[in-house]
Amino acid sequence: MSEVTSGDRGDPSGHGGWPARILGLTGREAQVLAQIADGRSNAEIAALLHLSENTVKSYVRQLYRTIRVTSRTQAVLWASRNGFVPGCGGTEYPREDPDGPTPR
């Protein structure tokens, strides 16, 4: 499975780690954003990541706040501009966060 990293393309933020880590996205939020960028619906993301659809919606709301967007289209554009590679999948936690998201 692919990982959500900026890895081979270099980190556009210059801060190391996966895209948007410096902005406070958790590993799980990065996974959800990668799935959104791949065009998946909340229901598809929920099934793929073994979450409830309501949990996915909560992650979506939080990541929208974090990256300061208000729509799925804006989130996809943001992801593209910030190193998320289309088709990367995002079903694994990023290498820098092997244990998953850290509690807030």
Note down, in words, how this protein is organized.
The protein is 42% helix and 0% strand. With 104 residues, the chain is mainly α. It has a single domain (1-10, 26-92), classed as Winged helix-like DNA-binding domain superfamily/Winged helix DNA-binding domain (Arc Repressor Mutant, subunit A, Orthogonal Bundle). It starts with 26 loop residues before the first helix and ends in a 23-residue tail after the last helix.
How many domains comprise the coordinates? 1
State the shape: globular
Number of strands: 0
Level-2 CATH architecture: Orthogonal Bundle
Strand content: under 5%
Question: Could you give the topology of this structure?
Answer:
Layout: H1 27-37, H2 42-49, H3 53-67, H4 72-81
Helix pairs in contact: 1-3, 1-4, 2-3
